[in-house]
Specification:
By secondary structure, the chain is of the alpha+beta class. It has one domain. The chain is about 25% helix and about 30% strand. The chain contains 3 helices and 7 strands. Strands 6-5-4-1-7 form a 5-stranded antiparallel sheet, with helices on both faces. It has a two-stranded antiparallel sheet with strand order 2-3. A hairpin with a 5-residue loop joins β2 and β3. The longest helix is centred in the last third of the chain and has 22 residues. The termini are far apart. The N terminus is likely disordered.
Length: about 150
């Protein structure tokens, strides 16, 4: 059975995808750098399935391939450790199953809702990275902001 005009097939949902920062500041005053996060490798593609509006979107529930196992995991993580938010159609049965099992509203049937959330999360994540560390960056620094500035 095919979907009509404007409908999304049952096996496709829209999610917000993002990438894990390659390097994050860590330790006392953010003077150390660590690659990726404890659960995800730097640069990994993850899917956002829930945001915590009460917390100002500081924490997100995500699905992605784990750093150590390579299998899909669903965890909560800090928004500041993500970048390049975008709406993407998802066909992966595993990702869709994990989204359904989580019982949250992150799997949208239309692109517009996913795009609106992605547009809100990008600037928030950048602001959280800046606000979290009030001290100067280490020298040399490879955090997301410094890498972005040096490539442009």
């Amino acid at each position: 059975m095919t979907a009509g005009a404007g409908e999304t097939p049952a096996e496709q949902r829209w999610l917000v995808a993002a990438n894990v920062v390659r390097w994050r500041r860590y330790g006392e005053d953010g003077q150390e750098l660590r690659p990726g996060t404890k659960s995800y490798r730097g640069g990994s593609k993850i899917y956002v399935i829930e945001t915590y509006a009460g917390a100002g979107h500081e924490q997100l529930t995500t699905i992605g391939r784990g750093r150590h196992t390579g299998t899909y995991i669903a965890i909560d993580m800090a928004t500041r450790n993500l970048h390049t938010f975008r709406a993407v159609p998802v066909h992966s049965p595993t990702v869709l199953r994990l989204c359904e099992e989580a019982g949250v509203g992150g799997c949208w049937t239309n692109r517009q809702d996913a795009e609106e959330l992605a547009a809100r999360l990008g600037p928030l994540a950048a602001g959280y990275r800046t606000a979290h560390w009030a001290s100067p960056h280490p020298v040399p620094c490879r955090c997301h902001e410094c890498l972005t500035l040096s490539s442009g």
